[in-house]
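## Example record

The block below lists the input lines for one assembly entry, exactly as stored, with component labels intact.
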Amino acid sequence: MLKQTLEEGRKLADAALERLLPPAEQRPTSIHAAMRHSVFAGGKRIRPILCMEAGRDVSGNLPAGIEELGAGLEMLHTYSLIHDDLPALDNDDLRRGRPTCHKVFGEAIAILAGDALQTQAYEVFAGLRCPAEARVKIIEEIAKGTGTVNGMIGGQVVDLEAERIKPDAGTLEYIHRSKTAALITASLVSGGIYGGGSPEQIRSLRDFGQAIGLAFQIVDDILDLTQSSEQLGKTAGKDVASEKATYPALFGLDESRRKAAILLDSANRALDGVGASANVLKGLGRFLIERQN
Amino acid sequence: MLKQTLEEGRKLADAALERLLPPAEQRPTSIHAAMRHSVFAGGKRIRPILCMEAGRDVSGNLPAGIEELGAGLEMLHTYSLIHDDLPALDNDDLRRGRPTCHKVFGEAIAILAGDALQTQAYEVFAGLRCPAEARVKIIEEIAKGTGTVNGMIGGQVVDLEAERIKPDAGTLEYIHRSKTAALITASLVSGGIYGGGSPEQIRSLRDFGQAIGLAFQIVDDILDLTQSSEQLGKTAGKDVASEKATYPALFGLDESRRKAAILLDSANRALDGVGASANVLKGLGRFLIERQN
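Predicted C-alpha coordinates for the full assembly:
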Protein backbone atom coordinates (compact mmCIF):
# COMPACT_ATOMS: atom_id res chain seq x y z
CA MET A 1 0.00 0.00 0.00
CA LEU A 2 2.74 2.42 1.03
CA LYS A 3 5.00 1.07 -1.70
CA GLN A 4 2.23 1.72 -4.21
CA THR A 5 1.73 5.28 -2.91
CA LEU A 6 5.44 5.96 -3.28
CA GLU A 7 5.61 4.44 -6.74
CA GLU A 8 2.49 6.16 -8.09
CA GLY A 9 3.47 9.48 -6.52
CA ARG A 10 6.94 9.31 -8.02
CA LYS A 11 5.52 8.58 -11.47
CA LEU A 12 3.00 11.41 -11.27
CA ALA A 13 5.68 13.87 -10.13
CA ASP A 14 8.11 12.69 -12.80
CA ALA A 15 5.53 13.08 -15.56
CA ALA A 16 4.73 16.61 -14.37
CA LEU A 17 8.42 17.49 -14.23
CA GLU A 18 8.91 16.14 -17.75
CA ARG A 19 6.02 18.32 -18.96
CA LEU A 20 6.89 21.49 -17.03
CA LEU A 21 10.65 21.69 -17.62
CA PRO A 22 11.77 23.12 -20.97
CA PRO A 23 12.75 20.25 -23.30
CA ALA A 24 16.46 19.42 -23.53
CA GLU A 25 16.56 20.47 -27.18
CA GLN A 26 15.12 23.93 -26.39
CA ARG A 27 17.73 26.65 -26.84
CA PRO A 28 19.91 27.40 -24.85
CA THR A 29 20.35 23.64 -24.69
CA SER A 30 23.18 23.52 -22.14
CA ILE A 31 21.12 24.94 -19.29
CA HIS A 32 18.09 22.77 -20.02
CA ALA A 33 20.31 19.70 -20.14
CA ALA A 34 21.85 20.73 -16.81
CA MET A 35 18.46 21.30 -15.16
CA ARG A 36 17.24 17.92 -16.39
CA HIS A 37 20.46 16.15 -15.40
CA SER A 38 19.89 17.06 -11.77
CA VAL A 39 16.10 16.79 -11.69
CA PHE A 40 16.06 13.35 -13.32
CA ALA A 41 18.79 11.78 -11.22
CA GLY A 42 16.62 9.21 -9.50
CA GLY A 43 15.22 11.20 -6.60
CA LYS A 44 12.52 9.62 -4.44
CA ARG A 45 10.23 12.69 -4.88
CA ILE A 46 9.54 12.82 -1.14
CA ARG A 47 8.35 16.44 -1.18
CA PRO A 48 5.92 16.04 -4.10
CA ILE A 49 4.53 12.86 -2.54
CA LEU A 50 4.02 14.51 0.87
CA CYS A 51 2.36 17.45 -0.89
CA MET A 52 0.02 15.24 -2.92
CA GLU A 53 -0.93 13.07 0.06
CA ALA A 54 -1.65 16.17 2.14
CA GLY A 55 -3.94 17.40 -0.63
CA ARG A 56 -5.64 14.01 -0.76
CA ASP A 57 -6.10 13.85 3.01
CA VAL A 58 -7.81 17.22 3.36
CA SER A 59 -10.11 16.74 0.36
CA GLY A 60 -10.74 13.00 0.22
CA ASN A 61 -9.36 12.65 -3.32
CA LEU A 62 -6.14 13.49 -5.12
CA PRO A 63 -6.94 17.05 -6.29
CA ALA A 64 -6.62 17.48 -10.07
CA GLY A 65 -3.32 19.06 -11.10
CA ILE A 66 -1.68 18.90 -7.66
CA GLU A 67 1.27 17.02 -9.16
CA GLU A 68 2.29 20.32 -10.77
CA LEU A 69 2.65 21.86 -7.32
CA GLY A 70 4.69 18.80 -6.37
CA ALA A 71 6.89 19.22 -9.43
CA GLY A 72 7.58 22.86 -8.51
CA LEU A 73 8.58 21.78 -4.99
CA GLU A 74 10.97 19.22 -6.45
CA MET A 75 12.49 21.95 -8.67
CA LEU A 76 13.18 24.01 -5.55
CA HIS A 77 14.69 21.02 -3.74
CA THR A 78 16.90 20.26 -6.75
CA TYR A 79 18.05 23.88 -7.07
CA SER A 80 19.18 23.75 -3.44
CA LEU A 81 21.09 20.50 -4.04
CA ILE A 82 22.87 21.90 -7.12
CA HIS A 83 24.01 24.98 -5.23
CA ASP A 84 24.91 23.03 -2.05
CA ASP A 85 27.16 20.75 -4.09
CA LEU A 86 29.19 23.64 -5.61
CA PRO A 87 32.91 23.85 -4.79
CA ALA A 88 32.35 27.05 -2.76
CA LEU A 89 29.80 25.23 -0.57
CA ASP A 90 29.91 21.49 0.16
CA ASN A 91 32.14 20.67 -2.83
CA ASP A 92 30.50 17.35 -3.60
CA ASP A 93 31.23 15.30 -6.71
CA LEU A 94 28.50 12.71 -6.29
CA ARG A 95 24.76 13.04 -5.77
CA ARG A 96 22.13 10.33 -6.06
CA GLY A 97 24.90 8.15 -7.48
CA ARG A 98 25.70 10.47 -10.40
CA PRO A 99 28.30 13.20 -10.97
CA THR A 100 26.98 16.53 -9.62
CA CYS A 101 25.78 19.26 -11.96
CA HIS A 102 28.98 21.33 -11.88
CA LYS A 103 31.14 18.25 -12.50
CA VAL A 104 29.29 17.66 -15.76
CA PHE A 105 28.38 21.17 -16.94
CA GLY A 106 30.89 23.41 -15.17
CA GLU A 107 30.34 25.82 -12.31
CA ALA A 108 28.83 28.70 -14.30
CA ILE A 109 26.06 26.58 -15.83
CA ALA A 110 25.44 24.83 -12.50
CA ILE A 111 24.92 28.17 -10.74
CA LEU A 112 22.54 29.31 -13.48
CA ALA A 113 20.74 25.94 -13.60
CA GLY A 114 20.01 26.25 -9.88
CA ASP A 115 18.78 29.80 -10.39
CA ALA A 116 16.62 28.69 -13.29
CA LEU A 117 14.98 25.84 -11.36
CA GLN A 118 13.94 28.34 -8.71
CA THR A 119 12.52 30.68 -11.36
CA GLN A 120 10.73 27.84 -13.15
CA ALA A 121 9.15 26.69 -9.89
CA TYR A 122 7.48 30.07 -9.34
CA GLU A 123 6.25 30.14 -12.93
CA VAL A 124 4.65 26.76 -12.26
CA PHE A 125 3.10 27.91 -8.95
CA ALA A 126 1.64 31.03 -10.63
CA GLY A 127 -0.10 28.84 -13.21
CA LEU A 128 -1.49 26.14 -10.90
CA ARG A 129 -5.05 24.90 -11.43
CA CYS A 130 -6.44 26.26 -8.15
CA PRO A 131 -8.00 29.67 -7.38
CA ALA A 132 -5.60 32.64 -7.60
CA GLU A 133 -6.19 33.31 -3.88
CA ALA A 134 -4.84 29.83 -3.06
CA ARG A 135 -1.93 30.24 -5.48
CA VAL A 136 -0.61 33.38 -3.79
CA LYS A 137 -0.96 31.73 -0.36
CA ILE A 138 1.00 28.74 -1.66
CA ILE A 139 3.72 30.98 -3.10
CA GLU A 140 4.05 32.93 0.14
CA GLU A 141 4.25 29.74 2.20
CA ILE A 142 6.91 28.19 -0.04
CA ALA A 143 8.99 31.38 -0.35
CA LYS A 144 9.07 31.65 3.45
CA GLY A 145 9.98 27.96 3.79
CA THR A 146 12.93 28.38 1.44
CA GLY A 147 14.01 31.86 2.59
CA THR A 148 16.60 33.21 4.99
CA VAL A 149 14.81 33.80 8.28
CA ASN A 150 13.56 30.37 9.30
CA GLY A 151 13.79 28.73 5.89
CA MET A 152 16.07 26.61 3.77
CA ILE A 153 18.67 29.23 2.88
CA GLY A 154 18.95 30.42 6.48
CA GLY A 155 19.63 26.85 7.59
CA GLN A 156 22.26 26.42 4.91
CA VAL A 157 24.03 29.63 5.99
CA VAL A 158 24.17 28.65 9.67
CA ASP A 159 25.23 25.14 8.65
CA LEU A 160 28.17 26.56 6.67
CA GLU A 161 29.12 28.81 9.55
CA ALA A 162 28.91 25.95 12.05
CA GLU A 163 31.69 23.99 10.33
CA ARG A 164 34.80 23.94 12.48
CA ILE A 165 32.97 25.44 15.46
CA LYS A 166 31.01 23.07 17.67
CA PRO A 167 27.41 24.32 17.63
CA ASP A 168 25.18 23.95 20.66
CA ALA A 169 21.97 21.92 20.55
CA GLY A 170 19.86 25.01 19.87
CA THR A 171 21.91 26.02 16.85
CA LEU A 172 21.87 22.49 15.51
CA GLU A 173 18.10 22.34 15.84
CA TYR A 174 17.80 25.70 14.04
CA ILE A 175 19.93 24.36 11.18
CA HIS A 176 17.93 21.17 10.76
CA ARG A 177 14.54 22.83 11.17
CA SER A 178 15.40 25.53 8.64
CA LYS A 179 17.51 23.64 6.15
CA THR A 180 15.30 20.59 5.81
CA ALA A 181 12.10 20.69 7.86
CA ALA A 182 10.94 24.06 6.52
CA LEU A 183 10.60 22.90 2.88
CA ILE A 184 9.07 19.59 3.96
CA THR A 185 6.56 21.55 6.02
CA ALA A 186 5.86 23.93 3.13
CA SER A 187 5.28 20.91 0.88
CA LEU A 188 2.62 19.54 3.25
CA VAL A 189 1.00 22.90 3.97
CA SER A 190 0.89 23.95 0.31
CA GLY A 191 -0.65 20.59 -0.60
CA GLY A 192 -3.25 21.20 2.11
CA ILE A 193 -4.00 24.69 0.76
CA TYR A 194 -4.27 23.32 -2.79
CA GLY A 195 -6.76 20.72 -1.56
CA GLY A 196 -8.87 23.37 0.17
CA GLY A 197 -8.00 22.28 3.72
CA SER A 198 -9.54 23.97 6.77
CA PRO A 199 -7.34 26.13 9.05
CA GLU A 200 -7.29 23.29 11.58
CA GLN A 201 -6.17 20.77 8.96
CA ILE A 202 -3.47 23.15 7.77
CA ARG A 203 -2.26 23.61 11.34
CA SER A 204 -2.07 19.83 11.80
CA LEU A 205 -0.12 19.42 8.57
CA ARG A 206 2.29 22.13 9.69
CA ASP A 207 2.88 20.42 13.06
CA PHE A 208 3.33 17.06 11.33
CA GLY A 209 5.80 18.59 8.86
CA GLN A 210 7.91 20.28 11.50
CA ALA A 211 8.27 17.08 13.51
CA ILE A 212 8.77 14.70 10.60
CA GLY A 213 11.11 17.15 8.83
CA LEU A 214 13.42 17.41 11.83
CA ALA A 215 13.36 13.64 12.30
CA PHE A 216 14.14 13.21 8.58
CA GLN A 217 17.32 15.28 8.91
CA ILE A 218 18.40 13.49 12.09
CA VAL A 219 18.04 10.20 10.20
CA ASP A 220 20.06 11.74 7.34
CA ASP A 221 22.85 12.51 9.79
CA ILE A 222 22.72 8.95 11.15
CA LEU A 223 22.84 7.42 7.67
CA ASP A 224 25.81 9.59 6.66
CA LEU A 225 27.68 8.03 9.58
CA THR A 226 26.51 4.44 9.28
CA GLN A 227 26.01 3.74 5.57
CA SER A 228 28.46 3.45 2.65
CA SER A 229 28.59 5.81 -0.33
CA GLU A 230 27.16 3.02 -2.49
CA GLN A 231 24.17 2.58 -0.19
CA LEU A 232 23.52 6.32 -0.05
CA GLY A 233 24.24 7.22 -3.68
CA LYS A 234 26.27 10.15 -2.41
CA THR A 235 29.56 10.59 -0.62
CA ALA A 236 29.18 9.07 2.86
CA GLY A 237 31.13 10.19 5.89
CA LYS A 238 31.30 13.78 4.58
CA ASP A 239 29.89 15.19 7.80
CA VAL A 240 32.68 13.79 9.94
CA ALA A 241 35.33 14.72 7.34
CA SER A 242 34.14 18.33 7.27
CA GLU A 243 33.47 18.37 11.03
CA LYS A 244 29.88 19.23 10.24
CA ALA A 245 27.31 19.83 12.92
CA THR A 246 25.19 16.67 13.26
CA TYR A 247 22.95 15.05 15.83
CA PRO A 248 25.15 11.94 16.22
CA ALA A 249 28.22 14.17 16.71
CA LEU A 250 26.48 16.07 19.50
CA PHE A 251 24.30 13.39 21.10
CA GLY A 252 25.67 10.05 19.92
CA LEU A 253 23.92 7.50 17.69
CA ASP A 254 21.56 5.96 20.25
CA GLU A 255 20.25 9.24 21.60
CA SER A 256 19.83 10.52 18.01
CA ARG A 257 17.76 7.46 17.13
CA ARG A 258 15.66 7.99 20.26
CA LYS A 259 15.03 11.63 19.35
CA ALA A 260 13.92 10.63 15.84
CA ALA A 261 11.48 8.08 17.29
CA ILE A 262 10.00 10.63 19.70
CA LEU A 263 9.53 13.10 16.83
CA LEU A 264 7.78 10.42 14.76
CA ASP A 265 5.34 9.89 17.64
CA SER A 266 4.58 13.55 17.97
CA ALA A 267 4.23 13.85 14.16
CA ASN A 268 1.62 11.11 14.20
CA ARG A 269 -0.29 12.74 17.05
CA ALA A 270 -0.40 15.99 15.04
CA LEU A 271 -2.16 14.16 12.22
CA ASP A 272 -5.19 13.45 14.37
CA GLY A 273 -6.30 16.96 13.41
CA VAL A 274 -6.36 16.11 9.71
CA GLY A 275 -8.88 13.32 10.05
CA ALA A 276 -9.19 9.57 9.83
CA SER A 277 -7.77 9.52 6.31
CA ALA A 278 -4.24 10.43 7.35
CA ASN A 279 -3.01 6.84 7.51
CA VAL A 280 -1.00 7.24 4.33
CA LEU A 281 0.83 10.26 5.70
CA LYS A 282 1.51 8.31 8.90
CA GLY A 283 2.96 5.50 6.82
CA LEU A 284 5.06 7.95 4.86
CA GLY A 285 6.39 9.44 8.07
CA ARG A 286 7.41 6.01 9.37
CA PHE A 287 9.01 5.20 6.01
CA LEU A 288 11.09 8.41 6.10
CA ILE A 289 12.40 7.61 9.57
CA GLU A 290 13.08 3.93 8.96
CA ARG A 291 14.70 4.30 5.52
CA GLN A 292 18.23 3.05 4.84
CA ASN A 293 19.24 5.61 2.20
CA MET B 1 10.64 67.13 -14.19
CA LEU B 2 12.43 63.95 -15.29
CA LYS B 3 15.10 64.51 -12.64
CA GLN B 4 12.34 64.73 -10.04
CA THR B 5 10.71 61.52 -11.31
CA LEU B 6 14.01 59.69 -11.05
CA GLU B 7 14.77 61.08 -7.61
CA GLU B 8 11.32 60.43 -6.15
CA GLY B 9 11.15 56.98 -7.73
CA ARG B 10 14.52 56.03 -6.35
CA LYS B 11 13.53 57.17 -2.86
CA LEU B 12 10.24 55.26 -2.96
CA ALA B 13 11.96 52.10 -4.17
CA ASP B 14 14.73 52.42 -1.58
CA ALA B 15 12.24 52.86 1.25
CA ALA B 16 10.33 49.77 0.13
CA LEU B 17 13.55 47.75 -0.14
CA GLU B 18 14.53 48.87 3.35
CA ARG B 19 11.14 47.72 4.66
CA LEU B 20 10.92 44.43 2.74
CA LEU B 21 14.43 43.05 3.21
CA PRO B 22 15.15 41.32 6.53
CA PRO B 23 17.07 43.71 8.82
CA ALA B 24 20.85 43.33 8.91
CA GLU B 25 20.72 42.29 12.57
CA GLN B 26 18.24 39.46 11.83
CA ARG B 27 19.86 36.06 12.22
CA PRO B 28 21.62 34.67 10.17
CA THR B 29 23.22 38.09 9.95
CA SER B 30 25.88 37.33 7.32
CA ILE B 31 23.39 36.66 4.55
CA HIS B 32 21.22 39.65 5.38
CA ALA B 33 24.30 41.87 5.42
CA ALA B 34 25.34 40.42 2.04
CA MET B 35 21.89 40.96 0.51
CA ARG B 36 21.84 44.55 1.76
CA HIS B 37 25.43 45.21 0.66
CA SER B 38 24.49 44.54 -2.95
CA VAL B 39 20.97 46.00 -2.92
CA PHE B 40 22.07 49.27 -1.31
CA ALA B 41 25.09 49.90 -3.50
CA GLY B 42 23.81 53.05 -5.17
CA GLY B 43 21.76 51.63 -8.03
CA LYS B 44 19.62 53.99 -10.08
CA ARG B 45 16.49 51.79 -9.55
CA ILE B 46 15.68 51.90 -13.27
CA ARG B 47 13.42 48.85 -13.19
CA PRO B 48 11.32 49.98 -10.19
CA ILE B 49 10.96 53.43 -11.73
CA LEU B 50 9.86 52.05 -15.10
CA CYS B 51 7.41 49.78 -13.27
CA MET B 52 5.94 52.60 -11.19
CA GLU B 53 5.63 54.99 -14.13
CA ALA B 54 3.92 52.27 -16.19
CA GLY B 55 1.43 51.82 -13.35
CA ARG B 56 0.89 55.57 -13.17
CA ASP B 57 0.39 55.87 -16.92
CA VAL B 58 -2.30 53.23 -17.21
CA SER B 59 -4.25 54.38 -14.15
CA GLY B 60 -3.67 58.14 -14.01
CA ASN B 61 -2.12 58.01 -10.51
CA LEU B 62 0.71 56.20 -8.84
CA PRO B 63 -1.12 53.05 -7.61
CA ALA B 64 -0.83 52.55 -3.83
CA GLY B 65 1.84 50.02 -2.90
CA ILE B 66 3.31 49.65 -6.39
CA GLU B 67 6.76 50.49 -5.00
CA GLU B 68 6.73 47.03 -3.39
CA LEU B 69 6.48 45.47 -6.84
CA GLY B 70 9.35 47.75 -7.88
CA ALA B 71 11.39 46.63 -4.89
CA GLY B 72 10.87 42.97 -5.80
CA LEU B 73 12.06 43.68 -9.35
CA GLU B 74 15.19 45.34 -7.98
CA MET B 75 15.82 42.27 -5.79
CA LEU B 76 15.74 40.11 -8.93
CA HIS B 77 18.06 42.48 -10.79
CA THR B 78 20.48 42.48 -7.85
CA TYR B 79 20.43 38.68 -7.57
CA SER B 80 21.44 38.47 -11.23
CA LEU B 81 24.30 40.94 -10.70
CA ILE B 82 25.64 39.04 -7.66
CA HIS B 83 25.70 35.76 -9.58
CA ASP B 84 27.07 37.35 -12.80
CA ASP B 85 29.97 38.78 -10.83
CA LEU B 86 31.04 35.40 -9.36
CA PRO B 87 34.48 34.01 -10.30
CA ALA B 88 32.87 31.18 -12.30
CA LEU B 89 30.95 33.70 -14.41
CA ASP B 90 32.22 37.23 -15.17
CA ASN B 91 34.69 37.29 -12.25
CA ASP B 92 34.20 40.96 -11.47
CA ASP B 93 35.65 42.67 -8.39
CA LEU B 94 33.87 45.99 -8.73
CA ARG B 95 30.18 46.83 -9.12
CA ARG B 96 28.56 50.24 -8.78
CA GLY B 97 31.89 51.46 -7.45
CA ARG B 98 32.02 48.96 -4.55
CA PRO B 99 33.63 45.55 -4.05
CA THR B 100 31.29 42.84 -5.34
CA CYS B 101 29.38 40.60 -2.93
CA HIS B 102 31.75 37.62 -3.12
CA LYS B 103 34.78 39.88 -2.56
CA VAL B 104 33.32 41.01 0.77
CA PHE B 105 31.40 37.94 1.97
CA GLY B 106 33.03 35.04 0.12
CA GLU B 107 31.65 32.93 -2.70
CA ALA B 108 29.37 30.67 -0.64
CA ILE B 109 27.46 33.54 0.97
CA ALA B 110 27.32 35.41 -2.36
CA ILE B 111 25.72 32.42 -4.08
CA LEU B 112 23.18 32.08 -1.25
CA ALA B 113 22.54 35.85 -1.11
CA GLY B 114 21.64 35.81 -4.81
CA ASP B 115 19.38 32.82 -4.23
CA ALA B 116 17.76 34.54 -1.27
CA LEU B 117 17.04 37.76 -3.15
CA GLN B 118 15.19 35.75 -5.77
CA THR B 119 13.19 33.96 -3.06
CA GLN B 120 12.43 37.19 -1.24
CA ALA B 121 11.20 38.81 -4.45
CA TYR B 122 8.53 36.14 -4.93
CA GLU B 123 7.45 36.43 -1.31
CA VAL B 124 6.98 40.16 -1.95
CA PHE B 125 5.04 39.58 -5.19
CA ALA B 126 2.73 37.08 -3.46
CA GLY B 127 1.85 39.70 -0.84
CA LEU B 128 1.30 42.72 -3.12
CA ARG B 129 -1.66 44.99 -2.48
CA CYS B 130 -3.51 44.17 -5.71
CA PRO B 131 -6.08 41.42 -6.44
CA ALA B 132 -4.73 37.85 -6.28
CA GLU B 133 -5.62 37.41 -9.98
CA ALA B 134 -3.26 40.29 -10.85
CA ARG B 135 -0.56 38.98 -8.51
CA VAL B 136 -0.35 35.59 -10.23
CA LYS B 137 -0.27 37.28 -13.64
CA ILE B 138 2.57 39.49 -12.43
CA ILE B 139 4.49 36.49 -11.06
CA GLU B 140 4.08 34.56 -14.30
CA GLU B 141 5.22 37.53 -16.37
CA ILE B 142 8.30 38.15 -14.23
CA ALA B 143 9.27 34.47 -13.97
CA LYS B 144 9.16 34.21 -17.77
CA GLY B 145 11.17 37.42 -18.16
CA THR B 146 13.91 36.09 -15.90
CA GLY B 147 13.80 32.45 -17.07
CA THR B 148 15.76 30.36 -19.52
CA VAL B 149 13.77 30.38 -22.74
CA ASN B 150 13.63 34.03 -23.76
CA GLY B 151 14.47 35.52 -20.38
CA MET B 152 17.38 36.79 -18.34
CA ILE B 153 19.04 33.47 -17.50
CA GLY B 154 18.81 32.28 -21.11
CA GLY B 155 20.56 35.46 -22.25
CA GLN B 156 23.26 35.01 -19.66
CA VAL B 157 23.89 31.42 -20.77
CA VAL B 158 24.22 32.32 -24.46
CA ASP B 159 26.37 35.31 -23.52
CA LEU B 160 28.77 33.03 -21.61
CA GLU B 161 28.89 30.59 -24.50
CA ALA B 162 29.49 33.39 -27.02
CA GLU B 163 32.81 34.37 -25.40
CA ARG B 164 35.69 33.45 -27.67
CA ILE B 165 33.40 32.63 -30.55
CA LYS B 166 32.20 35.50 -32.71
CA PRO B 167 28.40 35.47 -32.55
CA ASP B 168 26.30 36.53 -35.52
CA ALA B 169 23.91 39.47 -35.32
CA GLY B 170 20.95 37.20 -34.57
CA THR B 171 22.66 35.57 -31.60
CA LEU B 172 23.79 38.92 -30.27
CA GLU B 173 20.26 40.28 -30.48
CA TYR B 174 18.98 37.16 -28.66
CA ILE B 175 21.52 37.73 -25.88
CA HIS B 176 20.64 41.39 -25.39
CA ARG B 177 16.89 40.89 -25.70
CA SER B 178 16.93 38.04 -23.19
CA LYS B 179 19.61 39.15 -20.77
CA THR B 180 18.48 42.76 -20.36
CA ALA B 181 15.36 43.67 -22.32
CA ALA B 182 13.22 40.84 -20.92
CA LEU B 183 13.38 42.03 -17.28
CA ILE B 184 12.94 45.66 -18.33
CA THR B 185 9.87 44.59 -20.31
CA ALA B 186 8.56 42.54 -17.38
CA SER B 187 9.01 45.60 -15.13
CA LEU B 188 6.86 47.74 -17.42
CA VAL B 189 4.24 45.07 -18.07
CA SER B 190 3.91 44.08 -14.40
CA GLY B 191 3.54 47.76 -13.47
CA GLY B 192 0.80 48.02 -16.08
CA ILE B 193 -0.98 44.94 -14.70
CA TYR B 194 -0.70 46.30 -11.14
CA GLY B 195 -2.27 49.56 -12.33
CA GLY B 196 -5.16 47.71 -13.98
CA GLY B 197 -4.11 48.50 -17.55
CA SER B 198 -6.18 47.38 -20.56
CA PRO B 199 -4.87 44.67 -22.89
CA GLU B 200 -4.00 47.37 -25.43
CA GLN B 201 -2.05 49.37 -22.85
CA ILE B 202 -0.20 46.25 -21.73
CA ARG B 203 0.68 45.47 -25.36
CA SER B 204 2.05 48.99 -25.83
CA LEU B 205 4.13 48.74 -22.66
CA ARG B 206 5.51 45.41 -23.85
CA ASP B 207 6.53 46.87 -27.23
CA PHE B 208 8.07 49.89 -25.53
CA GLY B 209 10.00 47.67 -23.13
CA GLN B 210 11.38 45.40 -25.83
CA ALA B 211 12.67 48.34 -27.87
CA ILE B 212 13.99 50.41 -24.98
CA GLY B 213 15.50 47.36 -23.29
CA LEU B 214 17.52 46.38 -26.35
CA ALA B 215 18.64 50.00 -26.84
CA PHE B 216 19.62 50.13 -23.15
CA GLN B 217 21.97 47.16 -23.56
CA ILE B 218 23.47 48.55 -26.79
CA VAL B 219 24.23 51.77 -24.90
CA ASP B 220 25.74 49.66 -22.10
CA ASP B 221 28.08 48.06 -24.63
CA ILE B 222 29.03 51.49 -26.00
CA LEU B 223 29.74 52.88 -22.53
CA ASP B 224 31.91 49.88 -21.60
CA LEU B 225 34.08 50.80 -24.60
CA THR B 226 34.13 54.58 -24.26
CA GLN B 227 33.98 55.37 -20.52
CA SER B 228 36.46 54.85 -17.69
CA SER B 229 35.93 52.54 -14.70
CA GLU B 230 35.51 55.65 -12.52
CA GLN B 231 32.74 57.01 -14.73
CA LEU B 232 30.94 53.66 -14.82
CA GLY B 233 31.47 52.55 -11.21
CA LYS B 234 32.44 49.14 -12.55
CA THR B 235 35.36 47.69 -14.44
CA ALA B 236 35.38 49.29 -17.92
CA GLY B 237 36.80 47.64 -21.03
CA LYS B 238 35.87 44.18 -19.70
CA ASP B 239 33.97 43.30 -22.86
CA VAL B 240 37.00 43.76 -25.10
CA ALA B 241 39.29 42.03 -22.60
CA SER B 242 37.03 38.97 -22.47
CA GLU B 243 36.26 39.18 -26.22
CA LYS B 244 32.64 39.47 -25.29
CA ALA B 245 29.89 39.70 -27.88
CA THR B 246 28.88 43.38 -28.15
CA TYR B 247 27.17 45.65 -30.66
CA PRO B 248 30.24 47.89 -31.13
CA ALA B 249 32.44 44.83 -31.72
CA LEU B 250 30.08 43.58 -34.43
CA PHE B 251 28.80 46.82 -35.99
CA GLY B 252 31.22 49.57 -34.87
CA LEU B 253 30.42 52.51 -32.59
CA ASP B 254 28.60 54.74 -35.10
CA GLU B 255 26.28 52.04 -36.36
CA SER B 256 25.58 50.93 -32.77
CA ARG B 257 24.60 54.50 -31.85
CA ARG B 258 22.36 54.67 -34.90
CA LYS B 259 20.64 51.41 -33.94
CA ALA B 260 20.00 52.69 -30.40
CA ALA B 261 18.46 55.89 -31.81
CA ILE B 262 16.16 53.95 -34.15
CA LEU B 263 15.03 51.74 -31.25
CA LEU B 264 14.29 54.83 -29.15
CA ASP B 265 12.05 56.12 -31.97
CA SER B 266 10.15 52.87 -32.21
CA ALA B 267 9.86 52.68 -28.41
CA ASN B 268 8.24 56.10 -28.37
CA ARG B 269 5.83 55.18 -31.14
CA ALA B 270 4.77 52.12 -29.12
CA LEU B 271 3.76 54.39 -26.25
CA ASP B 272 1.03 56.04 -28.33
CA GLY B 273 -1.11 53.05 -27.32
CA VAL B 274 -0.77 53.84 -23.61
CA GLY B 275 -2.30 57.30 -23.88
CA ALA B 276 -1.40 60.96 -23.71
CA SER B 277 0.08 60.57 -20.25
CA ALA B 278 3.12 58.59 -21.34
CA ASN B 279 5.41 61.60 -21.55
CA VAL B 280 7.30 60.57 -18.42
CA LEU B 281 8.03 57.11 -19.86
CA LYS B 282 9.20 58.79 -23.09
CA GLY B 283 11.52 60.99 -21.07
CA LEU B 284 12.79 57.96 -19.15
CA GLY B 285 13.47 56.17 -22.43
CA ARG B 286 15.48 59.11 -23.74
CA PHE B 287 17.38 59.34 -20.46
CA LEU B 288 18.32 55.64 -20.60
CA ILE B 289 19.71 56.01 -24.11
CA GLU B 290 21.56 59.28 -23.54
CA ARG B 291 23.07 58.38 -20.14
CA GLN B 292 26.83 58.46 -19.59
CA ASN B 293 27.07 55.71 -16.95
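Residues 2-290 of chain A form a domain with the Farnesyl Diphosphate Synthase fold (CATH 1.10.600.10). The mean pLDDT of chain A is 93.
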